From TrEMBL:
GO BP field: methylation
Species in which this protein is naturally found: Streptomyces albospinus
Keyword Membrane attached: no
Domain of life: Bacteria
Chain ranges passing through the membrane: none
Pfam families: Methyltransf_11
UniProt keyword terms in alphabetical order: Methyltransferase, Transferase
Name of the protein in question: Methyltransferase type 11
Length: 254
């Protein structure tokens, strides 16, 4: 029996959105993955490192699945539910999780790490990354690119200015990395298809990825959600496109 709009929305509005695990969306939404395999390549770099830092680790799920950690492994996270989740997941694997407000400075000394990583950081403080890297050290990151899922964003917020659409562009990341004194050795970008198969998936996604539609609540957008529910039932899915880019930069030196 087909579930009602109210049932789907109530379920998605009540479920926990702690951590950075999207398994709740299995069968309800799909997102094409970048071809480069970030987690596998992260594991290759961790295997060669002696001291590594993962910034904005979320619930620690991506780092935990990347493979064996180096002798020194640290991670930072700002959101308290994620700090608790990452601590429970990463401490048994040998990583220390540090609660950090995602504002400079990073709570580590100069030249503390030969590898700094981050998957989908909200902000990137390039000068701080350069500071905590040892000479010859590497920053390796997969980031959300410009206009990601903007079909969904603009469904709720309306057309966005061009400067907003072009925010988080890989060209800017390259410039900022170089301005911080790092040598960029690789940048790759891909556009990827995302599909939402029911309105509950949309509600869950917007509750979890809070910067997409700031201030999103079911009550605030109930009418618009009801219209989107009708569209999904009619067409089978709501389709949007994400962009992802991979960037690797190295600190000059040994």
């Amino acid at each position: 029996m087909e579930r009602s709009f109210e049932e789907l929305v109530a379920e998605a509005d009540a479920v926990s959105v702690a951590g950075w695990d999207f398994s709740w969306l299995e069968g309800r939404a799909t997102e094409q993955r970048p071809s480069w395999g970030y987690q596998r390549r992260l594991g290759e770099r961790l295997a060669r490192a002696s001291a590594a830092l993962d910034i904005q680790t979320g619930g620690g799920e991506v780092l935990a699945g990347a493979g064996a950690f180096p002798r020194v492994m640290a991670a930072t996270e700002s959101w308290p539910p994620n700090v608790a989740r990452a601590t429970a997941l990463l401490h048994p694997l040998g990583a220390v999780v540090v609660a950090d407000e995602d504002e400079p400075p990073l709570p580590f000394g100069d030249a503390a790490f030969d590898l700094v990583t981050s998957r989908h950081p909200v902000t990137v403080w390039w000068d701080e990354i350069a500071r905590v890297l040892r000479p010859g050290g590497t920053y390796f990151s997969q980031q959300v690119g410009p206009s990601s899922v903007f079909e969904l964003v603009e469904y709720f917020l309306g057309p966005q200015p061009e400067e907003v659409r072009r925010a988080r562009h890989p060209d800017r990341a390259r410039r900022d990395a170089e301005a911080a004194g790092l040598d960029v050795v690789e940048v790759r970008e891909e556009s990827l298809r995302t599909e939402f198969f029911d309105i509950g998936a949309v509600v869950y996604f917007l509750r979890k990825v809070v910067w997409m539609v700031p201030g999103f609540t079911v009550d605030r957008y109930r009418d618009r959600l009801r219209e989107l529910d009708a569209l999904i039932r009619r067409e089978g899915a709501f389709v949007a496109y994400t962009t992802r880019f991979l960037i690797e930069a190295r600190k000059p030196g040994a």
